[in-house]
Every structure is written in structure tokens, then in C-alpha cells.
Specification:
Layout lengths: L18 H10 L2 E5 L3 H11 L6 E5 L3 H14 L8 E4 L2 H4 L4 E4 L15 H15 L7 E4 L4 H12 L6 E3 L3 H15 L6 E2 L2 E2 L7 E2 L5 E2 L2 E2 H4 L6 H12 L1 H9 L4 H15 L4 E9 L4 E10 L2 E5 L6 H27 L1 H12 L1
Parallel strand pairs: 1-2, 1-4, 2-3, 4-5, 5-6
Antiparallel strand pairs: 7-10, 8-9, 10-11, 12-13, 13-14
Helix pairs in contact: 2-11, 5-6, 7-9, 12-13
The site of pyruvic acid has 6 residues, from loops.
Amino acid sequence: MDPNSKTIPSSAAPPEKNRGEVMAEHRLKTSVAIIGCGDVGSTLAYTLVLQPICSEVILVDPKEDLLQAQVRDLGDATYRGQTGARVRAGTHKDAGQADIVVITAGAKQKIGESRLSLLSRNLHILSSIFQAMSPINPNTILLLVANPVDILTYFARKLSGLPESQVLGTGTTLDSARLRGILAQKADVAPNSIDAYVLGEHGDSQFIAWSSCTIGTSPLRLALPQVSDPAFKKDIADHTRGAAAAIIAAKGCTAYGIGMVAASICKYILFDSRTVRPLSFYQPELGCCLSMPAVIGRKGIIKKMPIELDESEQKNLEECAGNLRAVIDGAEKEMMADEQLRKALEADKGS
Ligand SMILES: NC(=O)C1=CN([C@@H]2O[C@H](COP(=O)(O)OP(=O)(O)OC[C@H]3O[C@@H](n4cnc5c(N)ncnc54)[C@H](O)[C@@H]3O)[C@@H](O)[C@H]2O)C=CC1
Ligand SMILES: CC(=O)C(=O)O
């Protein structure tokens, strides 16, 4: 062989790629579809295009003028091309082929309204979305954001026909971020030095897993002795549970917190990062979807992470599951009375 030749001999094995190269190549081809580009969907899209998370963001919304305007505005934010992400409008069918489909479509709470009051409206929207996306990419990961997120995650699992591990809701990740924020203020440390979870419903029956909270490696009772006072714990829990209502009362929606939470979950999935977060996913022993700590990766929920709950937290969990189960039972009856929803549910039973 000519020693000066630059041609690679055909028998040479291609050089092995390291994990970074594999992930970079993978990132070149990854798409996140966002169904619903109102306040939450557009904030999520903005958060995604500012970080190197995916190569393409597909927006879907029946409000054509809003959709085109969001795509143009977000496109303007990508002009420097630092992350390489592109934004485009798509149909529900296009979205169903994406690597991740994030569902933010639906009604939102008005002042004083609870998340559960949105159920009937948002269940109809959810069912129509799955009909329009069908046939969905069997490897897609579905991330539910629209409320009531635990109940919609439960029905998305049924309506999509996807494996349980591929259907998850943002759940109490946002509530846990709020909890870490307030505990960080009280303890005068950075929020990322705190490990503290809100579990159960992303809603009124949520509870804090106090017994497992730590700051650094210190149990909370050592790092923040005020937690021995029940009134202090109640204030923290009320502050965390009431955060959404307080923000909505003043500005009409919450968007930045959930935008960051949902974008981070997309990143954990696409980077196969195996990060632990409290996500809403199906709990067979409880018969509903609610948030428990889980390991997230490229295939969705990789596994449930065990957590020790004390007696009162275990009671909270069971009460929370009982409430959610009662709402699911009521919604299933409503679905059976509604022709379109009944067909969607029966199609799932037949598959
Ligand atoms: N899980 C969480 O932590 C959070 C959940 N949310 C929930 O997210 C949802 C969206 O909130 P916002 O963006 O503020 O509401 P929004 O009203 O600003 O936007 C909703 C969008 O969904 C669109 N939409 C309706 N039907 C659709 C369909 N079939 N396909 C595609 N798009 C459709 C609407 O046209 C609208 O543009 C609400 O249910 C809200 O409660 C909001 C914040 C946090
Ligand atoms: C709206 C909502 O669910 C939240 O901000 O927690």
C-alpha cells in the first residue's frame, strides 16, 4: 500500500465512539413535540432552544395564528444558533413521531379553581390528541404537563397504548422545586444542596416526605431544628401547596417553573441521564398515577427508587391514592357515557 495514501483501507474497523460522541450524534437528531403552545408550551419551547437538549422543537396548536406567531418569535430567539435547535410548526401526526411528546394542551385554572375541576375538559382534549396523533411512534416518551396531571397521565397511558414506563407526568417535581426553594431560604443554603420531596398528587392532597429530607448529608432535624415545630412544618407545606394559586392570582398562569422542570425532564430522557426525580407514573399497588421518586432515562421511567416513609407519610400516601382513585372511577363512568371517549377507552381494552 502507498504509505502516502490518505485513503482509509476498507478493511479498517471504524473507530469506536466514546459516550460523549454517541450522545452528541444522538442530539443531532432528537425532536421534542409540544402539544399546546400557550403560556406553558411556549415557555417550555423557549427553555429548550436556549440549551443544547434537542435538535428540533415541533409546536402544535389549533390556534393557527398563535402557532405561527410563536414559531416566528421563538425562531428569532435562535438566530445565533448556539444550540442548533430549530423550531417549526407541525401537525398532531408529525408530533406523534417525535422522540418526546409533551402535552401542555388544555384549560388552565382560573383564580380560585382547583386543578381537578379541569378534568372533564382536558380529558376530551387528551382523547382528541391521541386520535389525531395515531399511529404514535412506539418508542415515544409521553410527558404530561396539563392538569390534573396525575389523572391525565393515568388516561394517557390507556389512550396511547404505550408501555407504562414511557408515559409519565411532571407530577410533584415542580412542587419539590418550590419546597427546596423555601427550605433553602430558611436554612440559608443553596436550593441544590437540599434533597426534599413532595410526593403524591400534584394538587391539594400532596404531602412532604419530611422524614427523608436532608441538607447536604445532614437530616433536616439537625440542619434546620425549627422542623421540630409542627407550626413551622405546616407553614412550609401550605406555602408549597399554595404556590400555584398565589402566582395565578397575580399573573394568570405559572410558566417559568414548569418550563424549566419539563425541559430538564426532556434532557434527562434524551441524555439517558438516570436522574432521580419525583414523577407521576403508574403505581400498580395503588391503582393510579401519582408521584414517587423514579430514575429517568432514555426509555422513560427506568425504575422506581425506594423511599422510606414514616407511619404518617404512609397514611398520607394511601389517602392521596384513595382520592385520586375516586376521581379516576368518576372519570371512567363519564367516559363510558360519552360516545367518543368510550370508543377510545374500548379501543385500548381491545388492544
Ligand atoms: N403540571 C404542572 O406543574 C403545570 C401544569 N399546567 C397546566 O398546563 C396546561 C396549559 O396551561 P397554559 O399553557 O397556561 O394554558 P394556555 O391556555 O395558555 O394554553 C393552552 C393551549 O392549548 C391549546 N390547545 C387546546 N386544545 C388543543 C389540542 N387539541 N391540540 C393542541 N393544542 C391545544 C390551546 O389552543 C392553547 O393555546 C393547563 O392545564 C395548566 O393547568 C400549568 C402549569 C404547571
Ligand atoms: C398550575 C400548576 O399546576 C402549578 O403551577 O403548579
